[in-house]
Amino acid sequence: MKTILILSLMLVATVVPGISQEANAAAPETYRVKMETTKGTFYIDVTRSWSPNGADRFYELVNSGFYNDCAFFRVIEGFMAQVGINGAPATQAKWRDQTIQDDPVAKSNLRGYVSFAKTGAPNSRTTQIFINFGDNRFLDGLGFAPFGAISQKGMKVVDALYSGYGEGAPSGRGPSQQRIQQEGNQYLKQDFPRLDYITKATIVKN
């Protein structure tokens, strides 16, 4: 079961990483992101020293508005909630090969910690992130480096995200990452109407 979950954290196979690069600009050493969602609001407190390239990329994406109207397309009870495929295919296409260098894993994937998803290849992180529901430290050795954390109060909102669709296609009945990238939120709203969304993500503390 763990093997299936790990493989599913890897980005869809059709996402071919391009040339790995650093994020455009360095983020502050610490910053806070307000995540307004269809289930309520929570905050991600980011510490750059935990994962410098990850923190820089997240800062860049939030400031660009990338996460606005992004669906939590894969929510596995007891494991994690995954988000970060833009609902507009043209926007997603601009980012899909904008990979960043891996960071050493400085913190464990424990409840409330937030990491980037990646492919099985080195230096393949792009835009997708996941929030750990429980103790997932078995992911540490696979290179999933947390860059931020959510308080226990905030995790009450994350715990409420709709998880009824389960694992994504093709191994489950949930959304296909490939189809999200090709068809965007139109596909999700038509076929998976109960999914929750980030309505707005903003930097609120530098």
Automatic annotation (TrEMBL):
Matches recorded under InterPro entries: Cyclophilin-like_dom_sf (IPR029000), Cyclophilin-type_PPIase_dom (IPR002130), E_coli_cyclophilin_A-like (IPR044665)
Residue intervals of the PPIase cyclophilin-type domain: 40-161
Keywords annotated in UniProt: Isomerase, Rotamase, Signal
Pfam assignment, any one: Pro_isomerase
GO molecular function, one term: peptidyl-prolyl cis-trans isomerase activity
Keyword Chaperone: no
EC number: 5.2.1.8
Gene3D superfamilies: Cyclophilin-like
Signal peptide: 1-25
PANTHER family: PEPTIDYL-PROLYL CIS-TRANS ISOMERASE CYP38, CHLOROPLASTIC
Protein name: peptidylprolyl isomerase
